[in-house]
Amino acid sequence: MRGKIASGLGQGQYFISREGYSRQFLHHLGFVPFPGTLNVLLEEPFPAGASQAIKIEGFQEEGHSFGECKCYRIKLNGIEAAVVRPERSCYPAELIEVIAHVKLRALGLEDGDPFRIEN
Q1: What would the pLDDT profile of 16-61 be if each residue is shown by its tens digit?
Q2: What number of other Cβ atoms are within 10 A of residue 11's Cβ?
Q3: Distance of CA 49 to the CA centre of its chain
Q4: CA neighbours within 13 Å on the CB side: how many for 96?
Q5: Domains of the chain (ranges, CATH numbers)
Q6: pLDDT per residue over 63-94, tens digit each?
Q7: For the chain, how big is the Rg over CA atoms in Å?
Q8: Are 32 and 25 within 8 A, CB to CB?
Q9: Residue 10's closest CA among 97, 117, 101?
């Protein structure tokens, strides 16, 4: 799949940093993500029935409810990463969020740069 790097709303850091998510990411993906996501606008919708989905359970934390999501392992410039698809989202099907153990923007990625998912 191909797309372009896009700006996000800046909310990924808040959600990715929740203990309930980071603990599950470590268990299922083998890494604790850098607190933030890289947004990518794909040329076509992300396949809803993509195989190899890893389910991350929803949880309660400090009186707030956090919903479940699905993750899909990918590589970005040789770095282990994952696409995160929250169950509760207002994002269009073409917009994905990518997490990794490093700050992906530090790789020199800027808005508009081409992006290709490697499985």
Answers
A1: 889 999 999 999 999 999 998 999 999 999 886 666 899 999 999 8
A2: 11
A3: 16
A4: 27
A5: 2-116 (2.40.30.30)
A6: 999 999 999 999 887 899 999 998 877 778 89
A7: 13
A8: yes
A9: 97
